[in-house]
Amino acid sequence: MNWTNVLEFARGPFFKVALLVFVGGMVYRLVRIILLGWHKDLVPAKGSKVVGAFKSFLKGILIWPFIPWVKNTFKRNPLIYIAGGLFHLGLFVVLVLGTAHMLVWKSLLGFGWATLPLPIVDWMAAVTIVVMIMLFINRLINPVLKLISGPAEWLNLLFVFLPMVTGYIMTHHLWFRYEVLYSLHMLAVDVLLIWIPLSRISHFMFYFFSKAIHGADFGKRAVEP
Amino acid sequence: MENKVVLDTFVKETGGYVASQLEACTRCGICAEACHFYEATGNPEFSPVWKIELLKRAYEQRFTLSGKIKLALGIDKKITEEDILHFSKIVYEACTMCNKCSMVCPMGIQLGPLIHEVRAGLSNAGVVPADLMAAVNKQVEEGSPLGVTDDVFENRMEWVADEWEVDLPMDVKGADTLVVFSSIEIMKFPENIAAIAKILNKAGEKWTLSKKAREVVNFGFYEGSLERTKMFLQRVFDGAMDLGVKKIVVTECGHAYDAMRWTSYNIMDVPKGIEITHIVGLMGEYVRSGKIKLKEGAFNDGIVTFHDACKIQRRGGHIKEPREILNILAPKTFKEMSPNKEESVCCGGGGGVIAIKEADPIRYAAFELKIDQMKKVGAEMVVMSCSNCRLQFTDCVQHFNLDVKVAGLSQMVADSLVE
Prior knowledge:
Low-confidence stretches of chain A: none
Shape of chain A: globular
Helix content of chain B: 40-55%
Order of helices and strands of chain A: HHHHHHHHHH
Low-confidence stretches of chain B: none
Oligomer: heterodimer
Shape of chain B: globular
Number of strands of chain B: 7
Number of helices of chain A: 10
Number of strands of chain A: 0
Distance between the termini of chain B: 63 Å
Number of domains of chain B: 3
Strand order of the largest sheet of chain B: 2-1-3-4
């Protein structure tokens, strides 16, 4: 097999199709949810819904994912909670603040931004891979996760893990030829892009719904969300 | 055909509110650790995410493309009659609808209200635990799950007025405020009625009781039945309209407050111009405005702690008032349990659980978390503003043979009024 051809395909037509499926799929899901209809809330509020929603987002983004003891609840496995936070932070750093990915964004959006030095991004990528393995093991042994995990949950982990690992090996020029790794990386990315709208990885979009609902529900009662 | 009824209810109830939150769930399982029933028993089926499994499956299979495909391919299973019976036990016996899980969910999913939707489906299908249903039916027929009929109510109120020498105005037209007690207070904590009457009289409130609106408890809301929730609310609103009051005060009852203050407006026509509030909110107002004065340090001889009720504090918003009051009554001895306020741990008796005999073992198990919390602050007295919690505390203190005094906040206030 000629890897140059595979690479051309994976970063050319296949990537375009995958991107189209991703965007189209997410828009479809967004529109469908909005069109399901929303009841007007007629309950007289005690506090402000907007302030509640604002606080809910602020807490969610800034404090929550990294400090399990904020809620005095996760005494048994705070590590898993921190792992979840680190995983998302790592994804953000690698995907948005890594130079290579920023250039991809630039080619798609037409503008770029300042990025972090490679060693930092590299370390974050390594951390992300390690916490993914931790989260995988946790899903294997935690009784609740065993109960609620079906094929889709395992595929979620696999399809996010593959681009991370191939990307990491690629930047370190390990074991395989660069073209081979680059091809595998791009194929993994394409598969992931197609998988997202079909799966719960799409939660990054519904996050804005659920967090706003939560904040408004608490804000209206004048309770800290 | 129960499964069909359940599914149809879910489909009817599913709008953007339910669907967007179901879509947001990442199946991370973090909510489990917030649930006192899961923490107490370690049973993964008690995790909040599993309690909405029926709703999630129904949603996916009826609304989403991938769900339909999975169902056709046999990857997803249809909801069967056995499923419905199985989940009925879980969502009624092992959930107090305390909504603590929504506090820890990284996506902020309002699991309590979603579990209420599950109960709504099950209740329409008639798959409600027998004990709870018996109480609901009793409320439909007699007007009260604890048998507070017209005669019982009148006799009881006369007796309270005599015994504690308080004035209990009855059916006073043109009064400002209608006070509605819960049957738990009427039958089990009558001293609470006397205490609240004393406070209202002291504050110069123009208040009244109503024979028509004699009972605020809403077992239809526990059950999740829209029709019966409205029926019981309507009785109170009818009584209020007959007397032309401007305000309805719900006393120390949590679920009833949630139903009346935070739910009724969205499910029925609530008479205009009537404010609905809770006795704790009203007492806070009295203290702040100086309408009543409390003896400072009246409870300064032993450690006092406050138990936050899920429906009055976390879901009701009356978090500050009890603390302001306790800081006057017990400035030196008031100690907070941890976690507290909106993050507090549920007592384990709410949501109708205490009415179901079969749930007794897990109800006691869940209370052990509360015992732990109380022991850590060395509490000699625990105060709360919900009779349902108080019923659970009183029962459990006896069951575990604890040396802790259980008290209602209103009673403490009434006992320390400055003449």
